[in-house]
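quick one, 297 residues, struct below
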Amino acid sequence: MRVVLQEEALGDGLQGESRLFGLAEKLEIVRLLAAAGVRRLQLGSFVNPRSVPQVANTDVLVSLVRRQYPDIQCTAQVHNEKGVERALRSGLEHLAVIVPVSESDSRKHDGRAVAEVMKAATQLIAAATAEGIDIRAGLRCAFGCIYEGGIPETVVLDTVGQLVDAGAGEINLADTAGMAHPHQVKHLAAKVRERYPETELSLHLHDTRGLGLVNLYAGFEAGVRGFDVAVGGLGGCPFIEGAAGNVATEDAVHLFEGMGVATGLDLGGLCRAAEAIETLLERRLPGRICRAQHTPE
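---
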């Protein structure tokens, strides 16, 4: 049995950091991640760098990583047609489009109503797939919104249906606000898999309330085999106050290894990558297993 872990430290992980990472620093992190066995890697977003300065070098980074590491599947987020055009010029063949399921979250994050964002997103997905690009469509705050609370299951399932109809080959349910609990994750993931059995399903989980890893396990129990992670537990959401980072890659690997589930990733190599990022940020990251395995002098 095997799972696929998508490494998001360079994308979702760094987007909220005020300390900007240069191209050479990002390439060194990629080198360490590649040495640890990472084969699916989010490199950033094709958005206006004035709104997210950390992604200003995404175009060049993508081109260099694709050339140096052809066996790594690279991906990035896009939000509009211009982003897709930039991604195509960089040679990407896999992109992510994110949509809201909460009206309040949509207004605060996108400045538009959910219906308006969905219309633009489905058109974007259709256009991108027509160009031969594989699209992963993500549902932001699928397990709950800090402004509205719970999101009705019918809303999530209807949104998934629209995205699949538009051409998305993978659906990603995101616990952006970190509000999910294990029973909820297991139930909703099972519902999506039951209704759309031919569509790949993955989970994007945050550890805001300390349930990231157990929610990941609940998703696995529901049959999910793709998960977003970030080395060291890096990340958060710049639009949600108090949002914690993603599930730490090394912690997820430790969990799956203990269950006899293959990840293809080397725990020691991941710890070296986490330590390198901690050195650059000059602070400790929340990932646990690397410190737990460290032998005191």
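The domain at 4-293 is CATH 3.20.20.70 (TIM Barrel).
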